[in-house]
């Protein structure tokens, strides 16, 4: 029962459409030991078919001109940081931004297929309009049972977590004291954040993740702190000391 009330308490503190979320003030809250790994978890920029509202899971869509500009701005914002590594999924829309960030630090981005967005199976690349015509009633089923719903030949969110979380943990283990960037997808970022905050998969969409959203995760010896959620370039600050 205690854990249930903790989840309810956390959910009440998360604004559904907030631009940023800072659960603790690093200036007033002290943590045990020196800060360790610092992660800049970023969503890719706007995609070329954004105006159609498409199911871009594993579908390899490119960024729009606006999306490319967003990634340029993110790369500039992260330029002063002492990044030691840049990771992304192996899809074009994430790797494009990862490459722009990495170039400014003389790094090569490392791509992992495990960081791909949720697979939509036979829905891949379809617009919402096409989807409702070819698969009537299916979108309504997904909305009612988001956690367990699987598009034909696609994945559930629990299956997404089963491949994303182990890869994320492996990345963190390689960088106990480094500053790193991970360029990924809305569903992947929500999965990582829900894992870190101990919030069930069913509540994934309580986390806003706009195009080019920046999340900042700071590790300490005794815990992990989500310092920023769904932020922008102007929210980037120095590493805590």
Describe this structure in words.
With 241 residues, the protein is an alpha/beta fold. It has a single domain (19-117, 156-235), classed as 3-Layer(aba) Sandwich (Rossmann fold). 34% of the residues lie in helices and 14% in strands. Strands 3-2-4-1-5-6 form a six-stranded mixed β-sheet. It starts with a helix and ends in a 10-residue tail after the last strand. Pfam families: His_Phos_1.
Task: Set down the secondary structure blueprint.
Blueprint: H1 2-12, E1 38-43, H2 65-78, E2 83-88, H3 92-103, E3 110-111, H4 128-134, H5 138-144, H6 157-174, E4 179-184, H7 186-197, E5 214-219, E6 224-231
Parallel strand pairs: 1-4, 2-3, 2-4
Antiparallel strand pairs: 1-5, 5-6
Helix pairs in contact: 2-3, 6-7
For the largest sheet, list the strands in their spatial order.
3-2-4-1-5-6
| CATH-assigned homologous superfamily | Phosphoglycerate mutase-like
Tell me the domain tally: 1
Mean pLDDT across every amino acid position = 88
Q: What is the CATH C-level name?
A: Alpha Beta
Count of helical regions: 7
Q: What's the alpha carbon Rg, rounded to whole Å? A: 18 Å
InterPro entries: His_Pase_superF_clade-1, His_PPase_superfam, PGM_Phosphatase
Pfam family, one: His_Phos_1
Protein name: Phosphoglycerate mutase
Active site: 44 (tele-phosphohistidine intermediate), 117 (proton donor/acceptor)
